[in-house]
Design brief:
Layout lengths: L1 H32 L1 H4 L3 E2 L2 E2 H31 L6
Antiparallel strand pairs: 1-2
């Protein structure tokens, strides 16, 4: 039983780590650090770095919520702790 719980939490923490990495790359990376390089590309008439800082990161954050929920549900089902 102890080994199963350890594997469950390892997968959950791995998922959280990956979601936070994507969140960081989109918000801080694309919106701040790489904004100058991304500004050379236009999206809807606006520089891509500006778009990520103002709108793109919000879309990605919402998508991350749904992706996290779906993947967390799969992990819960794998370890038979899913809610009905």
């Amino acid at each position: 039983m102890e080994k199963t719980q350890e594997l469950y939490w390892k997968k959950v923490l791995g998922l959280i780590r990956n979601v936070l990495i994507v969140w960081f790359l989109c918000s801080y990376g694309a919106g701040i650090m790489f904004a100058g390089a991304l500004d050379k590309i236009k999206l809807g008439g606006y520089p891509l770095g500006f778009w990520f800082a103002q709108q793109g990161s919000i879309y990605i954050f919402v998508a991350l919520i749904f992706i996290y929920a779906k993947l967390m549900g799969k992990i819960d089902e794998e370890f038979d702790v899913a809610e009905d």
